[in-house]
Structures are given as C-alpha cells and as structure tokens.
Amino acid sequence: MKDGHLDGAPPERARGGPPGLTNAALGAAGLGGFLALCEAVPRLGVVSAEYFPPVSRIADALAGELGDGAFWTALGDTLTGWALGLAIAVTAGVLAGVVISVVPYLREATASTIEFLRPIPSVALIPLAVLLYGTELRSVLLLVVYASFWQVLLQTLYGVRDVDPVAEETARAYGLGTWARVRHVLWPTALPYVMTGVRLAAAVALILAVTAELVIGAPGLGARIAVAQTSQAVPEMYALVVVTGVLGLLINVGARTVERRALAWHQSVRGEVAV
Amino acid sequence: MLDVRGLGKVYEGSGRRVEAVRDLTFTVGAGELVCLVGPSGCGKTTLLKCVAGLLAPTAGEVLLRGRPVTGPPPGMAVVFQEYGRSLFPWMRVAENVGLPLKQKKLPGSRRRDLVADALRSVGLADAAGAYPWQLSGGMQQRVAIARALAYEPDVLLMDEPFAAVDAQTRADLEDLVRGLWRERGITVLFVTHDIDEAVYLGERVLVLSASPTVVQEQLRIDLPPERDQLHTRVAPRFAELRTHVYAQVQAAKRGTAAVPTADAPTVPGRTPTPPAT
C-alpha cells in the first residue's frame, strides 16, 4: 500500500500575506471617515441639523436609549417577533420543501401556485394582518412568516433537486429505506441551499418585523421609531435606526458563522485541499 | 449463487425504444470471480443495475441464492465507478463505511469491529477520521471497497471500479481486489471494458456482444491462482487468452459470431457449470 498514508493537509484559506489585518484597518478607516463626514455636514450647515443631527448628538441619544428600560423591552419585542417568525418559516419551509419534492407529482401540482403567491409583497398583507389580529404580536408574525417562508421553501426545493443520482443509487444498493435516504442523502445535499435560504430569510424577517411595528404599531423598535418621529425626537429616531442596522449586521454575521460550522465539509467552506 | 436468466431490458421514453440488453443468461458460482467484458455501450451498466435490483428488467429474472431479485437485496454490495459521487462528502471515512451497517441494525461494537477490519484490509486504517475529499482518487475507491467489505455481502458487484484512476493505482487496486477475493472467499461479479484487467483478475470471463446484448462467449481463465502484475502479464498463456478475448470483443463490435482463435477453453452452452471452489 504505497499510498496508505493520509495525505490530506489542513485547508489553506488565505492566499499569501496577512490580508485580514490590512482589510480590517481599511474598513475601520472607511467607517471613521463616514462618521466624520456625517458629523461635519450638519455642523457646516450644508443640511439642517434639525433633520440631520451630527453624529455626536445621535451617539448621545443612543447612550440615553441604552440606559432606558423601555428601549430594552422594545428590543426584546422586536427580537421575539423576528425569532419566532423565522423559526416558524424555517420549519414550515423545510418541511414543505422536502414533502413537495419527495411525494411524486406534488412539485408539478404546486409549482404554479408557488409562483403566484411568492411575488406578493408581504407588506401588501398589512391590512389583512390588522383586520385579523390588530396590533398583536400575531400581526407581526403573519408578515414575517409570509416573507421568509418563500425564501426557505425555494432554496429547499432547489437543494433537494441537487441530489446526486450515484449517491442515491449507492444508498439504495446498501438497503437504505426512504426515511434513511432523506436523512443521510437528501438532507445533507440540501443543507447548503437551506442555509442560504435561512440567511436570506433572517434578513427579510428583521425588515418585516420592524416594518410591521412601524406601520401597524405593534410594540417593538419600529413602534418606538414612529413615536420618536411624531414627538420630534430626531436624534433618538436616528439612534433607533442605527440599532436596527446593527441588529441586521449581527444577524448576518451570526447566520454566516452557523453556515460555516454546519457545512465544514462543503466545497464552498473547506477551501483548497492538497491531494 | 447468482443466476441471471433470459435478462432483457428495453428503455422506452419520448418515442424512442432502445433495447439495451436482449437476452442474457449466465451463472456465478459461490466464491467465484467472474469478469464481464464487452465493447463500450454494450449495456454493461444496465445489466449490473438489473442484477443489483436498482433497475427492473423488462424480461427474464435475476436470482440470488435462488430468490428472485426485485429490489436491492440485502446480500449484495456495489462498488461504483464514480467513487467521488458514491462516497458521501459530509461523512468521515469511518461513517461512510459504517452507514450501511447502521441500516442493518448491527450493534455498535460489531459495527466498529467490521469498519476497522474493512479499513485495515484495504490499507486505510489511519484514514478513518478523514473526509473522503481529503484522500486521493485511489484511496477513495479503497474506501468504497472497504464499505462493500464491511457489509459482508454474498455477492460483490463492481461496475468498472478502476476506470477513473491512473494506471499504477489501478494495478495496486487490481491486486487488492484479487487478494481480498482469495482471502475472504467472496463471490465477485466484475464489470470492465478493459480486456487485460478482465483476464488478469477473472477466473472466468464473459464476453458480451454489442447492444442489444447477449453473451458472446464464456471463457475459463486457466492461469494459476497466484497472479502478480510482473509475471502474469508477460506469461505466454496470458497473451493467448488476452488475444482471444480481444478478437472476440472486436467481433462483437462488428456484430459477427464468435471466431475461434488459439485453444481457448470456451465453456459450451448457455448454462455452464461453475467450477468447484
């Protein structure tokens, strides 16, 4: 056995040099420049400080928000709506996707309906949500679930279609039943697609959660932004907008981390391998 | 052990009717190593899929230990040509080998023993924790062979398993398969398009005709059981058998009947008696 040893080297990620460091420095410099600009523009009187307060005032307002218990309650409400809605959408999307793919003829039968329902903007359902549930959490959930469900469902459908016929035949030849093939072949094949769907759905879910609170008035960050706006608390309004932005950023970073962990075996993650 | 009787397969779809396999009859005795060789596109893979129970034949039947094969039977393991697609990249080597055993509902300790033993047999004991894509092509095919061994099959089917590896690795793997066959006494049906490989490995070679496929000739390989790459391949008898099979495959391509060359011990009739083992 000449080649009996294990010659798989650990994956090499970076291509020469330490680009991580310089990239981080450049990113920080860019952000610093942007903040300085936002500070300077209203102070120089280019735009009215009344509608566009300088960064320092927004930072003050943000600090004030962070010290206010009501802010944390609102943040909790938004995150609850987001997480609950996303969880429902992911579960339903994955289950529906797998069932539609596994049951014969179901894909063909549902395709046109999916293509009809999918483009309906979730915000168009706001009147329906208000009629059904008023300003309750369920209103937010309806919109969040509707928007994110399609992302997950479509990615699951694509992923399941990607199953390799040789892998499938191998599984059958070794006596794996339908359930075992779903678990050991279909699900791992679809997982990279599902992960992409979840990441997209997580971003969309946050947008819809804030939108629902803003428009319907369900408790949360969106409703707090609306209150700040109507009471002329402009710096506070901007501070809350910044918070929603940071939230979106954290959600994306989190989703990518989960993706990398779960798909360590996948081509897109494992990088170059010396063979 | 394995009986193929009057097997036929016709593909029908989109207005086209393709008769891939017409009428195949042969037997593989217990503990025998039989090679199937034929011109490319002669329906070797179709035949193997029918035998494995992955494809339903349109005529005839396949019997394993006297029982008709209607789906993948429990006593049969398959090694595919496309090792990279047949091994699951999301599982480590040991998990790949052990997965079919889990389905067999073997207890954990027995599974671990079988996996370790199979990996040792193919010389990959230290690769158990690696992912298949961290290994070279030849090593990946070894893993696929280990998976088949651990399954403890009555019959091992191999579908052009070494068509995608380089010549040196191929020679190593041929010796590995022959060694495992002698050591473990498994029944092997080996499909290949490589005439040298068929003669080198087989105890018996079945030459298939061009599509629609029938058995063109059955040939007993009367080379000594001890074979090695260096001496067997230059033995005069090897050259004779190889030339004979080559002529048969060429005749099969042209669609003519078998031409008798040399003094090859052709097995007469359609239902040959397998050699005693």
From TrEMBL, chain A:
TM annotation in the entry: 82-104, 200-225, 237-255
Key word Cell membrane present: yes
GO BP annotation list: cellular response to sulfur starvation; transmembrane transport
A GO term from the CC aspect: plasma membrane
Topology in membrane: Multi-pass membrane protein
Swiss-Prot/TrEMBL keywords: Cell membrane, Membrane, Transmembrane, Transmembrane helix, Transport
Location relative to the cell: Cell membrane
SUPFAM superfamilies: MetI-like (SSF161098)
Pfam families given in the database record: BPD_transp_1 (PF00528)
Keyword Transmembrane: yes
All copies of domain ABC transmembrane type-1, residue ranges: 75-259
Matches recorded under Gene3D superfamilies: MetI-like
Major site of localization recorded for this protein: membrane
Protein family per UniProt: Belongs to the binding-protein-dependent transport system permease family.
Official protein name in the record: Nitrate ABC transporter permease
TrEMBL record, chain B:
CDD domains according to UniProt: ABC_NrtD_SsuB_transporters
Gene3D superfamilies: P-loop containing nucleotide triphosphate hydrolases
Annotated TM spans: none
Pfam entry (one): ABC_tran
Keyword field: ATP-binding, Nucleotide-binding, Transport
SMART domains in alphabetical order: AAA
Region of interest: Disordered: 256-277
Domain ABC transporter positions: 2-235
Biased composition regions of type Low complexity, renumbered to the chain: 256-268
Gene Ontology MF terms: ATP binding; ATP hydrolysis activity
Keyword Isomerase part of the UniProt annotation: no
Keyword Transport on entry: yes
UniProt name for this protein: ABC transporter
